[in-house]
Prior knowledge:
The complex is a heterodimer. Chain A has 28 helices and 2 strands. Chain A has helices at 3-26, 35-61, 70-73, 85-96, 100-108, 113-140, 147-154, 157-186, 190-213, 218-241, 243-248, 253-269, 276-301, 325-332, 341-346, 359-383, 387-394, 397-400, 404-413, 420-429, 442-453, 463-498, 510-533, 539-567, 575-597, 605-614, 619-657, 676-679; strands at residues 32-33, 304-305. In chain A, helix 12 (253-269) crosses helix 22 (463-498) and helix 14 (325-332) packs across helix 25 (575-597). The two termini of chain A are 16 Å apart. Chain B has 3 helices and no strands. Chain B has helices spanning 29-44, 47-57, 63-78. Chain B starts with 28 loop residues before the first helix and ends in a 6-residue tail after the last helix. The interface between A and B is large, with 74 and 52 residues.
Amino acid sequence: MSKLSRVFLWTFISLAGAFALGTIAVHRGEEINALWLVVAAVCCYALGYRFYSKFIAAKVLGLEPLRATPAERLDNGRDFVPSNKWVVFGHHFAAIAGPGPLVGPVLAAQFGYLPGTLWILAGAIFGGCVQDFVILLFSVRRDGKSLTEMVKSEIGRVGGFVAYAAVIAIIVILLGVAALIVVNALKASPWGTFTIAMTIPIALLMGLYLRALRPGKVLESSVLGFILVMLAVVGGQWVSVTPSWARLFTFSAPALAAMIIVYGFAASALPVWLLLAPRDYLSTFVKLGTIAVLALGIVALRPTLHMPPLTRFIDGTGPVFAGSIFPFAFITIACGAISGFHALIASGTTPKLISREPEIRMVGYGAMLAESMVAIMATIAACVLQPGVYFAINSPAGIVGQLPAAATATISAWGFPVTAAEMQSLAQAVGEQTLFNRTGGAPAFALGMAHIFARTLGGQTLMALWYHFAIMFEALFILTVLDAGTRVGRFMVQDALGHIWKPLGRTSWYPSILATSAVIVGAWGYFLWQGVKDPLGGINSLWPLFGISNQLLATVALCVATTIIIKMGRGCYAVVTLAPLCWLVAATFTASYQKVLSLNPRIGFLAHARQLASSPSSGATARLIFNDRLDAAVTAILVVMVASILIESGLEWSRILSGRKPAGVKEAPFVPTRLLSQSGVSQ
Amino acid sequence: MNKNPHVCHSEPSEKPPRTAPRQSPARGPLSRLLQTLADILREIFDEAAYTRFLARHHRPSSRTAYAAFLRETEIARARHPRCC
């Protein structure tokens, strides 16, 4: 393509992006088509990738095409394997894309579609993609070191210890919240519960099939598993309309929570091949397929957004979660904009697969753009619902009232008309007893997705199947996150305890496996239990806690990245990581301050505890007060830990920039690549 | 310098195959795209890792080989976080 054609093409993309973005930003009154969001996102991503990531690659990081990566130098065919860039891209995307980019944007839609969309676009292009890109490169340059190891070697030992503790805390909170989303999606839903229950024997069957019948044929067994899961989705309908079976699979939230806690313990203690690995394969298969189908569906069907760009809840009085746009929109949407958890993956398996440094741009920056697109699709799925329906699903009974008439009256009074009859017919259409108070984001996303597909594929008659397919899809990979996260947490606890008493660190010693599994499951199980017993639905307090902890981890990752950039002698470009770092510190620390100390009982944990203490007390009140104080303490401890890393980093930057300490990076020595003859040098 | 104590120091001829898509100049773009997609899926679903395991140990696929592969990858797999 000639230079003139390129200039013309990028000018066109810029203008199209600006026009689409302008349309969604200034449009008021009439409903708009979802395609505007898609066009704005695609153009912004294209510009971000083409110009900003290229600038970072060339000027800030100085990617070296001639430098051998650890995958090449340490190639052992097992952990370190030089792989094709598209293969690594797919592998990395499958690992970073979880339920977060689907749930966060759905919850943030209470502000309208505009705040979430703008944050997803800006957060990803200037924050999340940059974080994933630089952490991946720095891990590659350090033989695949993990984030906590990099904090220890580049910032200091205290920082390393704090990062380690913060990662465990974040995993625990994440798992508690993830489990709560599943519970809220499945409570009093025999269809959904049956489908998800069936995924356990299906995964076990896949494990046995792989081990005994067709060794190594994972794709084949995943297709088989997928067919069985689809049969379970269809069979769930029969279960839901057969009273004797429906009774067997209808559970209250506490009963489901207890089952998930037992399941988490079993999944952590059982052999990996029997449950974790096949479930992971199945979940990945369904995830990739569903995301692709949803993307095609949105583009082909071009649904209309019924949610206004901004709602009255930008003032912080929202029913889904309390708090104003700043800072709460920025901690509610983490995955999809910027997520600290990605730094763990970018410094985990992925750096050991990269063949050549220039490919890091596509894998690190590009895969995060793809995840951001998933978040835009989730925003669309939530906003195609009528706002009244959206709020009826996502508002807890403690805010809108227990009875349908009370809930619809409250929501209609907010200016979002909805009737009890409308909600009842919608519940019947998707095969549920009720859709009221299904907080957590998953049911609203599922309904939005069903709404999009029911416009053409099978019409209203298949709406129930689409809804339960979407519920199965979300619950399946949330439970996979639960399996994998519990095990990762268990290994981290075992590593730490191994320093105190060696046998506890042995990952094959069953007493240690059982004890550490119980510690991790007990910890997230407590948060889950707290959520299901919370009259405000749990999501109101736990999702912000998760958002804060995830963004604090991103703060740690950006601290390391800025430190290394300064040590590389490129301090003048440190703004690429320093700017998102400052934004995250402002948003996360403000949110933490408000969650702990706000005088509004709907926002501040301690104010809520004081309000409860002044009301007539009962056994439940005492527990709720304790939970509020626990949440406040956890938030405060996380903030203090991350603040200590920030201070330690700041001191290190000051020492280097003032010349009191020589700048020097702790990279693996340069070794020229031998892969040039195979792949050529190209950016 | 090789810092990883677990690295296999094998001769170049014994190295496992690199997971690059098999390329052929005669192939059309659609065929190459499908091949790349298949390679991505094989890597995500660990089939490529199993093939490398078999090549590294010079053994055919069997139940015992797959069980050995699962044992070898169990710890690494169990330590992989899945993002939220």
